[in-house]
Amino acid sequence: MKRKKIAFVIAALLIIVSAGIYFYYGFLFKEARNIQSEMPDYTISATKLLEEYNADPKKADQLYLNKTIEITGIVTKETDSVLILENTVFCLFSQKVKSALINNKVTVKGKCIGYDELFQEVKIDQCTINK
What we know:
Elements: H1 2-28, E1 42-45, H2 46-55, H3 57-64, E2 68-78, E3 82-85, E4 89-93, E5 105-116, E6 121-130
Helix pairs in contact: 2-3
């Protein structure tokens, strides 16, 4: 009788541990996306992207939030790891950006992380410049 209880407890523990591992790897643990290798879900100009966010932020979020998008526009500001396109799209790079891009038209691919109402900019993360 005691052996049956011990076997039942061990079996129950194995099931609980297996379910926990399945839940962790199946739902909680996600590998980081490699935006550079992904195909863009949308290709849009910087000004059009801002227009869509100004017209209906919820609809624009449904379309673009956490999606890989490709944005084309003229660089209006630059720092070591940030380009701002058309004064409306804030593009954050994970590494230093080559300089002297001001007033040049570029196409940037990245993940849209939303609209910043304070600065009135669309924020793009994990950016790369497309050739």
